[in-house]
Specification:
Chain lengths: ~280, ~400
């Protein structure tokens, strides 16, 4: 009887480990590598040179841009520096055109990409993606203090501003197809759509990407996002698929930075503060 | 006792023989069923073609480059072509890679090609078939599928001839190669109008012999301002003139043009030092100057991109405006233009880079606003101003 209990216990333990590995627990790869004595070459190389080489395309403010001296600055630079510092490493920024960033990573020219790169499910075969650090998707925004709390709370025939042809426009047309009784008011640019919401009482809401919306808030426009992203577009950090230790470190440190309020601080620094609308 | 055991042996033998016969009979029946199922099976990826449809549009020159080459599922091929029809575009350009069809010399696999042609025809679309992409057996080791030696031009010609023979009466236009003025598209060999002219000289007569009705498109040059001697490519205007100088005019019926607008609106005047939509007029002028005014032009790639970060992109609204205007220019101002097929309708998957922002429909078939606005144009619902 005792023998049978031991056998069943062993079977359950093996099954649990198998399920954990199969489910792709966040640090499963690193754990297995440690167990097998395998090492993460990217992480080791970073330790040896005391440097984290990060690829960035400095053409997407406020995440990556060039300052007056030609240095790369922005949200992503500060985020990468915070990560590097927490690991006791220096940060080296390698400016690379956006469409070559992942190729450079694959070729080993850089250790990671921190450049407002959207998560790509297909890319998971080739690259390791971190948890998101910024949700750039389409949000429903309303004037500060508006009683509207989401799409379902929009009044019938509500006029919703969009940038014509944009993702916000696409989401608005999708909502219409799905039965939402809204009318879209198209504008040529995001700024015109934002101004319409702020100044035109006939406009009830706005559908806009979170980057443009957050920039407007930083400029003092009294608009606020309500409800979840209606079209998700999360920005992630990309590392080599084989860099299991580095990826684990990125994930845990990002979580720490989030918990410590550092990500919120970076957002305020680079987008400007959001007014207190006491929702 | 002996007699008894002999009887038992005979009985056993009979039983074993019967069992064996039964198994054999069972195996034969099983095989017959399997063969029957195999013979009667619907074609792989079977999707009903549906009723014959027709494109309704105010602009019969409207077209789009589909991208069905890597689209495996038949229903997605059908849905793509349905949506092209519903958008109001009667023309499509589609790529039929030689390497996919003739994986071994002389052995052709037309399944996927048939699927595309069948569904396109049923949706009332006219297919301009782009031919290229060299199989491994037809090129030296360590070359890309865009490289072809001159001694293999005949092999390419045989593929093209087989293609036009198979689809005689159904496909009336073929494009020979793509952007031969770019090193990338020329297998990273030095760009050479002479070699492309020779390709036309070899391949075109083979196509015409196989199907005299088919019209042959050449050129499909990439618009580029590459300086003389550039390893990347050759200026398209110079390349076209070189083709005429080499006597290539006899070997094509229509000039294929790639007309990207980058950040310029479609009414920006043509200029040799600018890549814009009206650069098409400069290519046309070269045709006229070389006695080819009687031949038409087809835009087989082109358009605008609305990626938020790409330096050659425009705002999404401008992209809609420019696209509709481009179709209108072809209809109203360019009598020599037969079709404008812009890049690109839909990709089988997201590329997650600027390329995604050339498409009209998302990979999940959700129409982008540009699709719906172009559809409104084709239905005559956009009167005058396009912009909001």
């Amino acid at each position: 009887m005792r023998h049978r209990i031991a056998l069943v216990s062993a079977f359950i333990a093996v099954l649990a480990v198998a399920v954990w590995l199969w489910a792709g627990a966040a640090d499963a790869g690193a754990w297995v590598n440690r167990l097998l004595g395998r090492q993460d070459g990217t992480w080791l190389a970073m330790q040896e040179r005391g440097l984290w080489r990060v690829g960035m395309d400095p053409s997407f403010p406020p995440f990556n841009l060039l300052d007056e001296q030609g240095a790369v600055v922005g949200y992503d630079v500060d985020l990468a520096r915070a990560l590097a510092t927490s690991w006791g490493l220096e940060l080296e920024i390698v400016p690379i055109g956006y469409d070559s960033l992942l190729d450079a990573l694959k070729a080993g020219r850089i250790d990671s990409v921190v450049s407002a790169v959207p998560y790509d499910p297909r890319g998971t075969r080739d690259y390791g993606f971190s948890p998101p650090y910024f949700e750039a998707g389409v949000r429903l925004a309303v004037r500060a203090g508006s009683p509207i709390t989401g799409v379902a709370a929009l009044p019938p025939q509500a006029l919703v501003a969009v940038e014509w042809g944009s993702m916000g426009d696409l989401v608005g047309r999708r909502l219409q197809r799905e039965g939402a009784a809204i009318e879209l008011a198209p504008y040529a640019t995001p700024d015109e759509a934002i101004a319409a919401l702020a100044e035109d009482e006939r406009i009830s809401a706005l559908l806009l990407d979170q980057v443009s919306l957050r920039q407007a808030q930083g400029r003092g426009v009294a608009v606020e996002a309500v409800g979840p992203a209606l079209e998700s577009n999360p920005y992630v950090i990309v590392a080599p698929l084989t860099a299991t230790v580095l990826r684990e470190r990125i994930a845990t440190t990002l979580a720490d930075l989030q918990a410590q309020g550092v990500l919120a601080e970076l957002e305020t620094r680079w987008f400007g503060p959001i007014g207190d609308y006491s929702r | 006792m002996e007699r008894l055991s002999g009887g038992v042996r005979r009985l056993r033998a009979w039983m074993e023989e019967t069992r064996a016969r039964r198994w054999v009979a069972l195996a034969v029946v099983g095989l017959g069923v399997a063969i029957g199922v195999w013979v009667l099976r619907p074609p792989a990826n079977y999707v009903p073609l549906g009723p014959q449809r027709h494109v309704e549009t105010i602009n019969p020159k409207m077209g789009i480059h589909t991208r069905l080459t890597d689209e495996v599922e038949a229903w997605k091929i059908k849905r793509t072509l349905e949506m092209v029809r519903e958008m109001g575009a009667p023309w499509i350009v589609e790529y039929f890679p030689w390497a996919y069809v003739e994986q071994q010399p002389g052995r052709f696999s037309w399944n996927h090609t048939d699927l595309v042609i069948d569904h396109a025809e049923r949706q009332g679309l006219r297919v301009i078939a782009r031919l290229g992409f060299v199989p491994e057996w037809a090129r030296p080791r360590n070359t890309t599928p865009l490289y072809l030696d001159e001694e293999r031009f005949g092999d390419f010609g045989r593929y093209a001839a087989e293609f036009v023979r198979r689809y005689a009466g159904r496909v009336h236009h073929v494009i020979i190669w793509n952007e031969p003025n770019l090193a990338l598209e020329w297998g990273y060999a030095p760009v050479d109008p002479g070699k492309y002219a020779e390709m036309l000289r070899v391949v075109t007569p083979m196509i015409r012999a196989a199907n005299p009705e088919v019209r042959i498109l050449a050129g499909a040059l990439a618009p580029t301002l590459a300086p003389p001697g550039s390893p990347d490519g050759m200026n398209d205007l110079l390349y076209l003139q070189a083709l005429y100088d080499l006597g290539a005019a006899d070997y094509f019926d229509i000039l294929a043009v790639h007309a990207y607008g980058w950040v310029a609106d479609p009414d920006e005047p043509a200029h040799p030092e600018a890549v814009n939509f009206r650069r098409t007029e400069l290519l046309r002028a070269i045709m006229v100057a070389n006695g080819d005014a009687h031949k038409p032009v087809m835009i087989t790639e082109g358009g605008w991109n609305d990626h938020p970060r790409w330096t050659r992109a425009v705002r999404p609204g401008a992209r809609i405006d420019y696209t509709v205007r481009a179709y209108a220019i072809a209809l109203e101002e360019w009598p020599w233009m037969e079709a404008v097929c812009l890049w690109a309708f839909r990709y089988p998957w997201d590329t997650k880079n600027y390329q995604d922002y050339f498409t009209f429909v998302r990979t999940d078939f959700e129409p982008k606003p540009i699709y719906e606005e172009v559809q409104r144009y084709s239905r005559g619902e956009l009167a005058g101003e396009v912009q909001p």
